């Protein structure tokens, strides 16, 4: 599993196991289906046949829950961890812009 350990923090929001089909949009405008397997206020875990890169910014759309920009934080095979870009701090915004 690839993870950036430099900014590991204790989770502030508990994650809940789910099974939701969602739509993921990448920077070039392509959209594809993914399966969200756990969800919290700050992020989610999903399964995707489309390869994603750590640091990549994506748009996640969950039916009935709206859309949210997120950044890929880790990957393990076809499983990915996303952190929602909530704009809570300048540091998070800067990381999203530079892909770290």
Automatic annotation (TrEMBL):
Task: Tell me where on the tree of life, at the top rank, the source sits.
Answer: Bacteria
Domain (PilZ): give its ranges: 11-90
According to UniProt, the name of this protein is PilZ domain-containing protein
The UniProt entry, under InterPro entries, shows: PilZ_domain
Q: Which organism is it from?
A: Sphingomonas anseongensis
């Amino acid at each position: 599993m690839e993870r950036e350990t430099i900014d590991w923090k204790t989770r502030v929001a508990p994650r809940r196991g789910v099974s939701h089909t969602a739509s993921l949009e990448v920077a070039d405008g392509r959209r594809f289906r993914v399966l969200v397997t756990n969800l919290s206020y700050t992020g989610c875990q999903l399964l995707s046949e489309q390869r994603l890169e750590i640091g990549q910014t994506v748009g996640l759309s969950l039916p009935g829950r709206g859309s949210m920009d997120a950044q890929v934080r880790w990957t393990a095979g076809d499983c990915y961890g996303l952190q929602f870009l909530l704009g809570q701090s300048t540091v998070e915004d800067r990381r999203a812009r530079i892909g770290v």
